[in-house]
Amino acid sequence: MGKKRAVVLLSGGLDSTTCMAVAQSEGCELFPISFRYGQRHAKELIAARAVADYYNCERHLVIETNMEDIGGSALTDHRIDLPVGDLERTEIPATYVPARNLIFLSYALGYAEVLGAAEIYIGVNALDYSGYPDCRPEFIRLFQQVADYTTKAAVEEGRRIIIKTPLIGLTKKEIVQLGQKLQAPFHLTTSCYAGGPEACGRCDSCLLRLRGFAEAGVVDPIKYARRPE
């Protein structure tokens, strides 16, 4: 028998790339899915393509959807400033994209059903993250319940598609350590919200990433326009 198939949500960032490495280590044939959803820049899609190529994926599916028409996020509306330099805030930041993981997982669920894949990997994280409500275990648990009643595979064939979240209980330090252990291609990734030629080193995502690498005692291999002292 061939490898079991798995759909992997791949943004081109640290977490999703580590998630790819986990799926590979668990013997899966990787089918990454990425999204052009009206985000500020295409750099993350370039990174996602490079990661997919690194893992010799048979297909890298890129879904296009116009979430910028909904707006409401600094990642899809240039009129909203990117938050910088405050990882201690308690409110949900302006980089939250309304219903993003709900939409992305819905596409991934349909793709997994067509492929005959039994698993969907998503690199959500509920510890060192930006406070997004759709990264919490509660959301994943409830989406799994919906998935169990949504597909023909589940209703007629008894074929359950499992949402796997191997990073959900890890700190950024632990994610870096896991990715390094699995030889994830961190040098191909980007986490920056700004999307410049070099990572800005100022946005929430850059700061979380840099802190994770520092705490893990690992040098982040990507270039930054500014690294915090």
The CATH first-level class comes to Alpha Beta
Name the shape in a single word: globular
Unreliable spans are none
Got a strand count? 5
Q: Regarding quaternary structure, how should these chains be classified?
A: single chain
Count of DSSP-assigned helices: 7
The largest sheet is: 5 strands, parallel
Question: How do you describe this structure in short?
Answer:
With 229 residues, the chain is of the alpha/beta class.
Describe the structure.
The structure is a single chain. With 229 residues, the protein is α/β, with parallel strands linked by helices. It contains seven helices and five strands, in the order E-H-E-H-E-H-E-H-H-E-H-H. The protein has helices spanning 14-25, 43-54, 100-115, 137-147, 152-157, 172-181, 204-216; strands at 4-9, 28-36, 61-64, 119-121, 162-164. Strand 1, helix 1 (14-25) and strand 2 form a beta-alpha-beta unit. The protein has one domain: 3-Layer(aba) Sandwich (Rossmann fold).
Structural descriptors:
Rossmann fold, 229 residues, alpha/beta, five-stranded parallel β-sheet
Topology:
Layout: E1 4-9, H1 14-25, E2 28-36, H2 43-54, E3 61-64, H3 100-115, E4 119-121, H4 137-147, H5 152-157, E5 162-164, H6 172-181, H7 204-216
Parallel strand pairs: 1-2, 1-4, 2-3, 4-5
Helix pairs in contact: 1-6, 6-7
